[in-house]
Every structure is written in structure tokens, then in C-alpha cells.
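Milestone 3.1: sequence recovery, worked example.
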């Protein structure tokens, strides 16, 4: 059974994952509007991924008999100065999410709530991967540069990431019994 403080914090995280999904969907639309189709596809996939993060938390609350509460939330930004500025915003956002997961782990450890502590290990590993992913995209942008045909080549690189994610998702679906 979860404490009221833990239920509140897990609900806060559920709403942060929904906001992350809205943010990436909005960014996907901005990219599509700029004819950056590879980035648009990658971010659309990532918006879906954030909803799977949300559902894991939602199901965990249900398993413990707690009520999940979906809140109203602010609209994400819909204008970005550049593709690089947009990915910098994503990297900062993921670092913020990691900070919130660390706070949750700290609460689970100090309460103590060992079941939630174990449940959160997946999120700790996932945040490490997400920070690595977006840092690697920023590194590629710095390497290729945004002058001339730079944006076109960056978009192609991000399209490859979208394709590999799509293939991984398809093989996971095929492996389902
Ligand atoms: Fe659900 Fe991108 O963290």
C-alpha cells in the first residue's frame, strides 16, 4: 500500500510524462512544418513512447489500489528559434525528468517503500538512455553544422534513428505470444 505522499508524487510523474508527450508531439509538428520529416517522425514516435512511460505509472497505481489523477496542464511551446535550440530544449527537459525520477527514488528509499523503489529502477535506466540519446543528437548537430545542407543531413541522421526505433518496436510486437 502506498502512502498519500507517494501517490501524490507518482501522480505528478504521470502528468509530467503526459506533458512530455505533448511537448514532443508539438515539436514533431514544428519539424513537419519546416520540412524536417526525419525529425518529425522521430519526435512523433518519442511522443508515443512518453505515453507508454505514463501508462506504466498508471498501471502501478492501479495495482496498489490507488487512484490516478490526470490534471490540466500548460500547453507546450510551439515556436523554436532553430532545430538546435529545439533539441537543446529536449535535452534540458529530459535532465529535469531525471531529476524528478531521482526525487521519487529518494522518497521510496527514505519512507521506506521497497516495492516502489524496485518499480522505479526501470525509470532510472530509461532516463540514462534518454539523456544519452538526446546528447548524441546534439553532438551530431555540432559535428555536421547547420549551415548550407547541414539541416538536410541532420534530418537524415535523425530519420535513421526513427527507422531503427520503428524496427525495434515491430520486432517486439512480433515477439509477443
Ligand atoms: Fe518519460 Fe523522456 O522520459
Amino acid at each position: 500500500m502506498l502512502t498519500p505522499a507517494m501517490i501524490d508524487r507518482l501522480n505528478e510523474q504521470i502528468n509530467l510524462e503526459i506533458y512530455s508527450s505533448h511537448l514532443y508531439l508539438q515539436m514533431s509538428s514544428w519539424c513537419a512544418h519546416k520540412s524536417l520529416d526525419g525529425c518529425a517522425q522521430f519526435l512523433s514516435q518519442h511522443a508515443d513512447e512518453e505515453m507508454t512511460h505514463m501508462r506504466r505509472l498508471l498501471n502501478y497505481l492501479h495495482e496498489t489500489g490507488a487512484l490516478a489523477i490526470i490534471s490540466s496542464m500548460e500547453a507546450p511551446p510551439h515556436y523554436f528559434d532553430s532545430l538546435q535550440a529545439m533539441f537543446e530544449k529536449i535535452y534540458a527537459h529530459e535532465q529535469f525528468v531525471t531529476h524528478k525520477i531521482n526525487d521519487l527514488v529518494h522518497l521510496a528509499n527514505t519512507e521506506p517503500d521497497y516495492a516502489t523503489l524496485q518499480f522505479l529502477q526501470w525509470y532510472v535506466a530509461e532516463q540514462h538512455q534518454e539523456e544519452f540519446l538526446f546528447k548524441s543528437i546534439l553532438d551530431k548537430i555540432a559535428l555536421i553544422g547547420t549551415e548550407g545542407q547541414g539541416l538536410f543531413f541532420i534530418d537524415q541522421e535523425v530519420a535513421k534513428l526513427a527507422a531503427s526505433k520503428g524496427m525495434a518496436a515491430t520486432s517486439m510486437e512480433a515477439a509477443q505470444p
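The helical segments are 4-33, 37-63, 83-110, 114-119, 121-144, 150-175. The chain has a mean pLDDT of 95.
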